[in-house]
Amino acid sequence: MFEQAISSEPRNPIGEWVTRGGIALFFIWVGADKFSPGWVKLFEQIGFGQWFRYFTGVVEILGGILVLIPWTVTLGLALLACTMASAALLLIFVVGQPADSIFSGAIFIALTLYWLTRRN
User: Fold this and answer.
1) pLDDT recorded at residue 120
2) DSSP 35
3) Which of 31, 38, 45, 64 is buried most, with the most CB atoms less than 10 Å from its CB?
4) Exposed, middle or buried by CB within 10 Å (0-12, 13-18, 19+), for 55?
5) What backbone phi and psi angles, to 5 degrees, belong to 9?
6) Residue 90 contacts residue 42 (beta carbons within 8 Å)
7) What is the DSSP letter of 7?
8) How far apart are the first and last CA of the chain?
9) 69-115 pLDDT, tens per residue?
10) Which residue, 87, 34, 52, 119, is CA-closest to 107?
């Protein structure tokens, strides 16, 4: 039972780069989009001010860049997972729109599962 979990195949480096590149591109794109006026209303509902929108954009871009650097992948994944968990919680408890938290919650789960597969 545990032998299968211990003896895993080596990772495919091309698959790793494609996956990490996809994560990075997604978060760099979403982070850069936070600087557009389309996010003003949501961040007004959150109530922390517009500085929080810019901060969130910078954190998402930084997390995307960290995922690309081989020795900072774990830090980038942790930063992005915390950002997505926070987004889900803010949408549920502060904004009062729990259905909107499904997307950020799903991204949080996907990032966590990807991190767990990389742990060996």
Assistant:
1) 66
2) T
3) 64
4) middle
5) -75, 150
6) no
7) S
8) 17
9) 999 999 999 999 999 999 999 999 999 999 999 999 999 999 999 99
10) 87
Distances (CA, A) of 113 to 56, 79, 94: 23, 14, 27
- At 12, is the pLDDT very low, low, confident or very high (cuts 50, 70, 90)? confident
Both tokens assigned to 111 = 């990032």
**Is 42 buried (19+), middle (13-18) or exposed (0-12) by CB count in 10 A?**
middle
How far apart CA 76 and CA 21 sit, in angstroms, is: 12
Helix 51-68 to helix 73-89 angle (10° resolution) is 150
What is the per-residue DSSP string for 39-70? GHHHHHHHTS-THHHHHHHHHHHHHHHHHHSG
Q: Which helix (H) or strand (E) holds 97?
A: none
Helix (H) / strand (E) element for 16: namely helix 13-33
Please compute, for residue 51, the number of CA atoms within 13 A of its CA located in the half-sphere on the CB side.
1
Residue 91 · residue 98 · CB < 8 Å: yes
